[in-house]
UniProtKB/TrEMBL annotation, chain A:
It comes from Spirodela intermedia. Its main location: nucleus. GO terms for cellular component: FANCM-MHF complex. Keywords: DNA damage, DNA repair, DNA-binding, Nucleus. This is Uncharacterized protein. It holds the Pfam family CENP-X.
Automatic annotation (TrEMBL), chain B:
GO terms for biological process: DNA repair; replication fork processing; resolution of meiotic recombination intermediates. Signal peptide: none annotated. One of its GO terms (molecular function) is chromatin binding. PANTHER family: CENTROMERE PROTEIN S, CORTISTATIN. It comes from the Eukaryota. InterPro entries: CENP-S/Mhf1 (IPR029003), Histone-fold (IPR009072). It comes from Spirodela intermedia (Intermediate duckweed). This is Uncharacterized protein. Belongs to the TAF9 family. CENP-S/MHF1 subfamily.
Amino acid sequence: MEDLSFDPELMHSVFKLVWSKKSEKNGDTGIINDDEVAAGTSKKSRQTTANPNALKVSCELVRIFVTEAIERAAVIAEAEGSTKIEPTHLERVLPQLLLDF
Amino acid sequence: MDEEEERTEFLRDRFRLSAIAITEAEGRKQGMEISEPVVACIADLAFKFSKQLAKDLELFAHHAGRKSVTMEDVILSAHRNEHLGCLLRALSRELKGKEPQNVRKKRKTSKTEDAPTS
């Protein structure tokens, strides 16, 4: 069994990107923007961080999301007697998949 | 701004590549061929899912009065799906076991952990 997964470092970069974008747009919890620019060291305006284990669990979560998508689409494809997963198969499983995650 | 967009693109591509690798490995495991658009679509879905996850985690951590995201936040983000919650909880316990220095700190989690797994 291949145990491919995402790189926690990569996941961290994606998270940081989202978090930095958000805090740029609006001082998230009501903290004023220029406070962040002027005094970046102040504790209140510091950006969100993630601990390494949380990143590993996040990687696993996204990995499960991907494998689950394939597995469900594979079941549909198999039921139709096909050995190739086509977009229509994915379309059929997508609504429930998105509800489940 | 341009530079940031470039960085975003670069990250997204890197992320998609790993998603594609995982997708193809899973397809091989299932003995299934996967058509191109499906692979691309799943990679994109995974990236969007991660971005949403990042927003959720930030909200959860801030709600708890923290600046740092913990494993509990990640498990909380999967609370709607019991099986998923169990899987992640098992993994988090495994990871916690590897790092004995923060076992005591997470004392209160053991209480909440027992209920749903039964």
